[in-house]
Amino acid sequence: MIHSVRIFACILLLSTTVPIAWSQGTSGFSGVWKEDNDRCEPKRNGEVTLRIEYHDPYLTVETSISRNSANPRHAIQKYTTDGKVSVSTGTDGDEFHTSVARKDSSLIFSIEEHEDGRILPSKETWSVIENGATLARIRERPNGDKQTLLFRRITESSSVNESGTAEKRDK
User: Fold this and answer.
1) H/E element holding 11?
2) What structural domains does the chain harbor?
3) pTM, 2 dp
4) Contact 33/49 with Cβ under 8 angstroms?
5) Is the Cβ–Cβ distance between 98 and 85 less than 8 Å?
6) CA 87 to CA 69: how far, in whole Å?
7) What is d(CA 168, CA 119) in angstroms, rounded to the nearest whole number?
8) pLDDT (mean) for 151-168
């Protein structure tokens, strides 16, 4: 009888631990992220900030872009991670047909950008790396073009102003 209770207790412990470990692996996407231009390949300029809310299967990405003297741009995309296609409008007005699926602790985006009568396919893999401090977005196109976009997590001691620029706050 005691042996059966121990086995039951172990099964119960494992059944609650696995979902918690899985949710920690994917919930790390939520937060505010600022593009680290010097670490991107190719290098980038301007300010790009992402506000991500991820509560599986729902993923919302709010993007704010300010480049040099251009007017700031802003867009909100809503996805589900069940592979269904969602249609959204980007900061530049282009239409995006995107499906998102989880693979291990990453998110895989299959994207068709509809721009000036052309369809530009790409794939993005999003991963949270460096102990949760960095969001890596690897973008690949069928022609072999590849971009690596890295975003630093904005901590509680930072804020983001209306133009999407991160600012340090005094505590």
Assistant:
1) helix 2-27
2) 2-155 (2.40.128.20)
3) 0.73
4) yes
5) yes
6) 29
7) 40
8) 59
Residue 31 predicted with pLDDT over 70:
yes
SS3 state of residue 38: helix
Token pair recorded at residue 57: 């299967």
pLDDT value, residue 4: 45
DSSP 21: H
Residue with tokens 């919930």: 27
State both tokens at 105.
């602790």
With cut-offs at 50, 70 and 90, classify the pLDDT of residue 127.
very high
- Residue 125 CA neighbour count, 13 Å, CB half: 11
Length of the chain: 171
b vs e for 10-26, b when ≥16 Cβ sit within 10 Å of the residue's Cβ? eeeeeeeeeeeeeeeeb
Contacts of 50 (CB under 8 A, 6+ apart): 32, 33, 34, 35, 61, 62, 63, 135, 151
DSSP secondary structure string for all residues of 43-94: ---SEEEEEEEEETTEEEEEEEEE-TTSPPEEEEEEEETEEEEEEEE-TTS-
The pLDDT value given to residue 12: 36
- What value does the mean pLDDT take over residues 13-36? 61
Assigned token pair, 156: 């509680």
For 56, the token pair is 């599986």
The CA distance from 122 to 55, in Å, is 24
